[in-house]
Each structure stands twice: as C-alpha cells, then as structure tokens.
Amino acid sequence: MPITSKYSDTEVEKILAEVAAVLEKHAVGPELALMIAGNIATNVLNQDVAASQRAVIAEKFTQALISSIDE
C-alpha cells in the first residue's frame, strides 16, 4: 500500500530543488551530501521529536529510506 503524504509533490520538489542547488553550489560529493542529510535527520529528531518517540521515528525513517532506494 503506497504511503500518502499531507505535503504536495510540488512543495516537496521545490524544497528538494533548493537543497540540491545549495549542495551543487558547494560542489558537495555523495559522501558529504549523505553526511549532511544524516545530520539534518538527527537534528530534527533531537530538536522536534519527543525523546520517547525518537527511536520509533528513526526506525520508520530508516525503513522508508531502504524501501525507496533502487536495487
């Protein structure tokens, strides 16, 4: 069953394009881009998610990430 989002594709794509432009501006390679993405995820979890829910949300995020990659 596909996951539906409360955010529009247009909104997500616009923000993603802006983030990609910043990474391109700084000539960021894949390793650093992933490090930055991981740090952003960690910061969001630590700052915006209740401590009691962090591990659960992190696990769901991990599962979503794994299911979204092409193998």
From TrEMBL:
Pfam entry (one): DUF1414
Alphabetized InterPro entries for the sequence: UPF0352, YejL_sf
Name the family the entry cites. Belongs to the UPF0352 family.
This protein's name: UPF0352 protein VIBC2010_18854
Organism for this UniProt entry: Vibrio caribbeanicus ATCC BAA-2122
